[in-house]
Amino acid sequence: MADTAWQWDETLYAGSASHYRIGRMPYPPRLADAVGEALDLDGTGRLLDVGCGPGSLTLLLAPLFEAAVGVDADRDMLTEARRRASEVGATTIEWRHLRAEALPADLGTFRVATFAQSFHWMDRPLVVRRVRGMLAPGGAWIHVSASTHQGVADDEMLPYPRPPWRQIDDLVASYLGPVRRAGQGWLPTGTPGGQEEIMRQAGFTGPTRIEVDGGTLVERPVDEIVSAVFSLSSSAPHLFADRLSAFEADLRHLLSEAARDGRFAERRREIAVAIWRP
């Protein structure tokens, strides 16, 4: 393993985009209601979704604004976002292929900027300064955090077994090694923390916190869990190289043995929302 600090590279989610739709539990509609209520959104202004991925949050929140821009560094994610937008007839969203560090990129000003499970991959002090300058007077920065690939771990009896996440992690480690992979590098201590300090140093106040829709019971077939695994940066398909087929076969065998009638059950984790004001 290299001793140098982790650096972003374009392979971070290579091969994962097509798995998001299947493997990630969608954000609940109540999230849009809660954000709209908290910010008194009335269909005016523009939304900037930074690190938008396949548009999961962008598409949910876009109806609250007159227009939206989704920005991501992964072309395949944006291809998936455009496809999903076309399917639902969303015509007010512009999709832009660029890194957050390249903002403002002549995109103009926005009423709200959102970061959903994405900020930790960026040069955060740089991005927070640049996005702060893109917010209109009275605007807000929203950070959405949740593990949408995996549910709550507890001892409650459910109608089907829980996915064997610990054994899945062990299987991934047997192929990729014990240190978490991310793109071409490693994250031995995981993704960085300290977000609140960075926000305050950049002149933001808050946050106002909202929690949405925890505890909903979901049933998940084997294919969904396979895609959940491949939707993660730590087990993105490219990392397995020529062993991808072997890994998927082992994963499916593990899941088939653990499932009942090909299904699992989990309770959703709460979606945590932090609203910051410049």
TrEMBL record:
SUPFAM superfamilies: S-adenosyl-L-methionine-dependent methyltransferases. Coiled coil: none annotated. It comes from the Bacteria. Residues 48-139 form the Methyltransferase domain. One of its GO terms (biological process) is methylation. InterPro entries: Diverse_substrate_MTase, Methyltransf_25, SAM-dependent_MTases_sf. Keywords: Methyltransferase, Transferase. GO terms for molecular function: methyltransferase activity. This is Methyltransferase domain-containing protein. It comes from Micromonospora cremea.
